[in-house]
Amino acid sequence: MAKPTLFLTITILCIITITSNALIGGRTKIKDVKNNQEVQELGRYCVEENNRKVGSNGLKFVEVVKAESQVVSGTKYYLTIKAISSKGGKNSFFDAEIVVKPWVHSKELLTFRPGKGLK
Fold it and tell me: InterPro entries annotated for this entry (predicted)?
């Protein structure tokens, strides 16, 4: 009788360990993005940094519409940003990835590319 109970206990502990480890380092959806000032400021920074890198003021930040975070060496943010073209006034969506390391006052824009919006 002790062997089946021990096997069941070990099996349950393994399942708990595996599922909890899957969450470590995973992406976490950020709720209430529109009212999250830090996320909105990061979105604005991404647009400004992209404009600086391409050498124009082609985009104007509107808002971050979706955001996720992931703990890496710092915090990596996955942002869906709505921006408006300064030339045609058309709203467009962009996907950006940015790593923030607050202890060294560092922000690094990793990617900024056209996105599909809220899909």
Answer: Cystatin_dom (IPR000010), Cystatin_sf (IPR046350), Prot_inh_cystat_CS (IPR018073)
